[in-house]
Structure of Transposase IS4 family protein:
Amino acid sequence: MSRPATTVWPPRGGNYRYSTNLQVAVDAHTHLVVALGDPQPGNRNDTIVYRTSGIDQKLAGRPVIADGAYRGNPDVITPYRKPADGSARKGRTCGAEYCRIRRWGENSGAL
């Protein structure tokens, strides 16, 4: 019996790895997972995966802090380097506060 011409066999050697993009939301205070999105192919942009994985509906009405990969997404709070008025001191204060809060989420994800 022969295999169909459209069948693609994996390469030999056992290295059948592929990447996925999984969105996980962690509460900053309790360090507990609040929401999980559906896994998406790893070659997709984080902003696209945020919308298509369903996690945006699960987090509706909650403040969501994300990194610079989500820039342009109105549903999340992203960092900025300098305020529009150009004042460096105000930007440093806001940036420090953002980093302090985001660090809680990053540490929770590493547990």
Remarks:
- The two ends are 50 Å apart (CA to CA).
- DSSP finds three helices and four strands in the chain.
- Helices lie at 46-52, 55-58, 88-110.
- The mean pLDDT is 76.
